[in-house]
Amino acid sequence: MNSLRKGLLSLGMAVMLFTTAVAQKQEAKLGWKLGAQAYSFNRFTLTQALDKLDSCGLQYVECYPGQTIGGNIEGKMDFKMDAAKRQQVLDLLKSKKKTLVAFGVVSPRSDEEWKQLFEFAKAMKIQIITSEPRLQDLDLVSKLCDEYKIKVAIHDHPKPSHYWSPDSVLAAINGRSQYMGACADIGHWVRSGLDPIESLQKLNGRVFSLHMKDLHEKSRQGHDVVWGTGVCNIEGVLKELKKQKFKGLFSAEYEHNWFNSVPEITESVKNVRAMISKL
After folding, report:
1. How far is Cα 88 from Cα 72, in angstroms, rounded to an integer?
2. What is the tens place of the pLDDT at every residue in 24-44?
3. CATH annotation of 30-277
4. How far is residue 154 CA from its own chain's centroid?
5. 70-75: long-range contacts (C-beta < 8 A, 24 or more apart)?
6. Residues 85, 234: Cα–Cα separation, whole Å
7. What is the reported pLDDT for 23?
């Protein structure tokens, strides 16, 4: 009986891996990377989070500052970590077959820290820094983006965050580096009373990444639900992104059912991949 159970589990894993590989090829044709913001698993270490990504059928990860690394690596994720610690994290990612694409939300408070952050991103081969920069830092950020050829995606927290509206993000990037754009947090837009499709249309061509959410209701109290079962019009979001020829990262940021979100994120990924197959 145990041998049969193990055999069925192995077969199930093989089917999941095959299905994931097929889906990722389809996503790659669109220039889309489906991954997760490690903050979805902030009750766990980064090492555990990477294993959970595997269970969800996801390859790409957006790390955030402050998560305990785990896996016999001391300390937390931090753009100030030394070269030895950075290499340990890179080795961890390689061993888990996960690709680090983005880091944030992180907003340095000095010129020196911004420089340090870009150096960290360069060393870690991070493509996107997710941030909510202070207004007085925008010119410096623009200069560093051009110097390092690394994108900064401005993230929208709900009201009263300065960047809650696409209008404020557009004002911040207007006339600055083409490496400056938006990290579109769909759920936070809905919490602020905005329509995700209209918000994406305002940012046409300047969306670098998304924090994907679907909410159970249109209110500040709306909590995450499986994608496609809530009020955020996920199918419409995907259609709009394809229309815009978006190429970039989708980070699942599931901020509900913290200790057992893997089944819901897995179902979310399954649903969105079914939608993508019909685009």
Report:
1. 10
2. 889 999 999 999 999 999 999
3. 3.20.20.150
4. 12
5. 70/44, 70/45, 70/46, 71/45, 71/46, 71/47, 73/47
6. 38
7. 79
